[in-house]
Amino acid sequence: MSSEIDPELYLALKSGSILLGAKKVIKQLKSGNNPKLIIVASNAPESIKMEIEYLAKVAGVPLYQYPGKSIDMGRAFKKPFFVSAAAIMDEGESRILEILNLE
Where are the chain's structural domains? Predict the structure, then answer.
């Protein structure tokens, strides 16, 4: 399924608004300005995963467990670094919410 999602992640990054990084995602969830979707890499540290899952549940934000590792998620966003978590604030022209049945 990640092969279908990867191009949509990049399109959302280019045409919409995405926050990359666990610290930014956690800060955004605590601010009350909730994203449309949270994505967490499969190998994200357990403590970060648990905190993001809890905050997302409290905020009522859907959470998607990315099937790949953080390096794969970084590659999906065409970034030269690991990405353990991302928050989609605006999906732009991508169909990621539609593909994940969140619309």
Answer: 2-93
Instruction: Give the pLDDT score at 44.
Output: 94
Which residues does residue 66 pair with via DSSP β-bridges, in sequence order? 41
Query: What DSSP line would sit under 23-52, residue for residue?
Result: HHHHHHHHHT---SEEEEETTS-HHHHHHH
Burial of 17 per CB tally in 10 Å (0-12, 13-18, 19+)? middle
Considering all CA atoms of the chain, what is the largest pairwise distance in Å, rounded to the nearest integer?
33
2-93 — its CATH code? 3.30.1330.30
pTM for this entry: 0.90
Q: What is the pLDDT of residues 51-83, one digit of tens each?
A: 999 999 999 999 999 999 999 999 999 999 999
Rounded to an integer, what distance in angstroms lies between the CA atom of residue 32 and that of residue 68?
Answer: 28
